[in-house]
Design goal:
The structure is a homodimer.
Chain A lengths: L2 H15 L1 H11 L7 H20 L3 H23 L2
Helix pairs in contact in A: 1-4, 2-4, 3-4
Main location (chains A, B): membrane
Membrane topology (chains A, B): Multi-pass membrane protein
Protein name (chains A, B): SemiSWEET transporter
């Protein structure tokens, strides 16, 4: 594997896992003040399309990264709209 | 262009632009309650690496999408840590 690829994998790991502390914070505190609901509507729709794209082109990295991010982002969206 | 590609482009557009309403909300209200600072530290680091990766592999779509997302995510990170 080229050294470039490691930068890509590290980038994907960071952007994917970054949603974990946000999900934990929202799940434990139920405080969604300051969080944009529109952001999570657009983001979750985008992730579903990314996942579909990953499956269509049969790229495991794209599918897995977006499936995981969806797992973290979906509860944030649900709690945001429930707490209104 | 294959029809798959359009799903990928739509996915990238949605996940990139989703940070715009969050940036506008944080810039106008200065309310960052509920937003995880750790998320934005990890996310911004990840975006910088994605941008580097896009430049290294000379992929304009990867570079542009991550440059734009960085433009929206960076003010959120700065305001989050200033408002402490």
């Amino acid at each position: 594997m080229e050294w470039h690829s490691w930068i890509g994998y590290l980038a994907a790991t960071l952007t994917t896992l970054s949603f974990l502390p946000q999900a934990i914070k929202v799940i434990t505190t139920r405080n969604t003040q300051g969080i944009s609901g529109l952001m999570y509507v657009m983001f979750v729709c985008g992730l579903v399309l990314w996942l579909a794209y990953g499956l269509l082109i049969e790229d495991t990295a794209v599918s897995m990264a977006n499936f995981l991010t969806l797992l973290f982002a979906l509860p944030i969206l649900v709690i945001k709209y429930r707490s209104r």
